[in-house]
Amino acid sequence: MHLDLDAMSLTEIIRLQTELSQVLTRRFERPLALGFTDIVGSTAYFARFGDKAGRALQQLHHDLLCESIRPFEGRIVDVAGDGAFTCFASVEKAVRGLVVFLERAARVNETRSHEHRLVVRLGVHFGPVLTDGVIVSGDAVNLCARITSTADPGELRLSASALRESPPDIRVRAFPVPPVVVRGHPEPLVLFRFDWRDEHRLPGSVLVRETGDTFVLPRQDLISFGRLRGDEGTRGNDVVLSLRDTKLEQRVSRWHFELRRKPEGYVLRPLSRQPTEVDGRRVEAHGEALIQPGSIVRLSKAVTLEFLARQEAAPGNASPTLEPRSG
């Protein structure tokens, strides 16, 4: 059947448009779990280390993601330089597959220097899309990308619709974040941070007892502590121990120690020749000590750090009640 669109009236074209929309919906619309991953700081990485290193980091991201989501029937729909768009049959498979990806990236990062770590942000959304089994398109795809852009480094965020479709063991590990407004959606979005690290076992902040200074720990697998600040072209510490007492601050080394994420939790590794003690025991160079909420770290026999639990990781701070999932 040949249609002469140039000969059709406005009314006929509008009717045809409506019919085509109905056919598209009937044949190709279905709900899917969508996931986006985005490499944090990729533009600056390319600028600093060059195209070869940048492409290698992108390839590492792609390979780890493919290996991780395949057992969960996930696939990469599209790749856009520093990120990837994935889809899954269910939110449960999306979350579990992306958590495996995060865990594999964390293990790889243990062997890489601070500057060359693979750090990503992720988002999962559940909604209707148009798909023929290869192409996936629709407003839900754009929304998932924008949800991902709101996440912090190393964070996996879920939309409210994704959380509704999640099983109980995923829902109890999702914590609400402050509502955010994204382009194309005038109303603030209700989003949730998925606790893929089991953060009830991890400290979330550190208190300097001598001064009362408190520092929030970033959610990442390697956290460096010291008094060196970064500037253009120079990397500083993740937690800069800038104290109100400047004389006391000088007792802290430029690079004093780091926390590394392992299966059992964070472990402390000294980076300075100055003495570092954990719960009253000195940690020698190349040694390690487990850091948990309540751990006390003494630096240079002068500065006392107390590691505190994240408030949101405490019992009773889980996500609010949502409507049961569909199906």
Automatic annotation (TrEMBL):
GO molecular function: adenylate cyclase activity
Cross-referenced InterPro entries: A/G_cyclase, Adenylyl/Guanylyl_Cyclase_3/4, FHA_dom, Nucleotide_cyclase, SMAD_FHA_dom_sf
GO biological process, one term: intracellular signal transduction
Highest classification ranks of the organism: Bacteria, Pseudomonadati, Myxococcota, Polyangia, Polyangiales
The protein, known as: FHA domain-containing protein
Signal sequence residues: none
All residue ranges annotated as the FHA domain in the record: 223-283
A Pfam family per the record: Guanylate_cyc
SUPFAM superfamilies noted in UniProt: Nucleotide cyclase, SMAD/FHA domain
Source organism of the structure: Polyangium spumosum
Xref: SMART domains: CYCc, FHA
Guanylate cyclase domain segment(s): 33-148
